[in-house]
């Protein structure tokens, strides 16, 4: 089940992010390494306060989360405008590997922003071939690479009469 996160979820989301950052670090990746140098709980609380933070929960176990936020300083460093909403910190527990939890979270925010008529954007490390391929496979259109990050915007298919 996907639902809005609450303040009671902040610690669990922070733990998921920390575990993922440590796993990336163990593979030699610098992606998300900044999370290991800051108070992740404070960051997650800021996400909760600034926008909409969603969690994927099953049998009372938090298995993933995604932040859907208005343009932040980070986004303004990659985009020429501040249009739309931005996906940040999508993370899935290793316990849910292979269960398409990340895809379900993406589908949820895509459907929500479709309903609201909002532009939906995200970015990822340009050298992460898996994510770059994945985002285009689920309907995001590559917009360019800036400062080592690939930027994507969700391409809505307009209904025709």
TrEMBL record:
InterPro entries: Acyl_CoA_acyltransferase, GNAT_dom
UniProt superkingdom: Bacteria
Keywords assigned by UniProt, alphabetized: Transferase
Alphabetized Pfam families for the sequence: Acetyltransf_1
Residue ranges constituting the N-acetyltransferase domain according to the UniProt record: 11-160
UniProt xrefs under PROSITE patterns: GNAT (PS51186)
UniProt-recorded Gene Ontology molecular function terms: acyltransferase activity, transferring groups other than amino-acyl groups
Claim: Zinc-finger is one of the keywords in the record: no
Keyword flag Aminoacyl-tRNA synthetase: no
Protein name per its UniProtKB record: N-acetyltransferase
Organism name: Exiguobacterium oxidotolerans
């Amino acid at each position: 089940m996907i639902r809005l996160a609450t303040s009671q979820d902040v610690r669990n989301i922070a733990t998921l992010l920390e575990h993922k950052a440590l796993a990336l670090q163990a593979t030699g990746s610098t992606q998300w390494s900044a999370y290991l140098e800051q108070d992740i709980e404070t960051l997650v609380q800021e996400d909760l306060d600034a926008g909409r933070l969603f969690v994927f929960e099953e049998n009372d176990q938090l298995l993933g989360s995604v932040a859907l936020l208005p343009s932040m300083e980070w986004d303004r460093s990659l985009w020429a405008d501040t249009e739309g909403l931005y996906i940040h910190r999508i993370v899935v527990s290793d316990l849910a590997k292979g269960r398409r939890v990340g895809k379900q979270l993406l589908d949820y925010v895509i459907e929500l922003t479709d309903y609201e008529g909002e532009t939906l954007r995200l970015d990822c490390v340009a050298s992460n071939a898996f994510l770059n391929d994945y985002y285009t496979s689920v309907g995001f259109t590559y917009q360019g690479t800036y400062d080592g990050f690939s930027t994507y915007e969700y391409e809505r298919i307009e209904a025709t009469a």
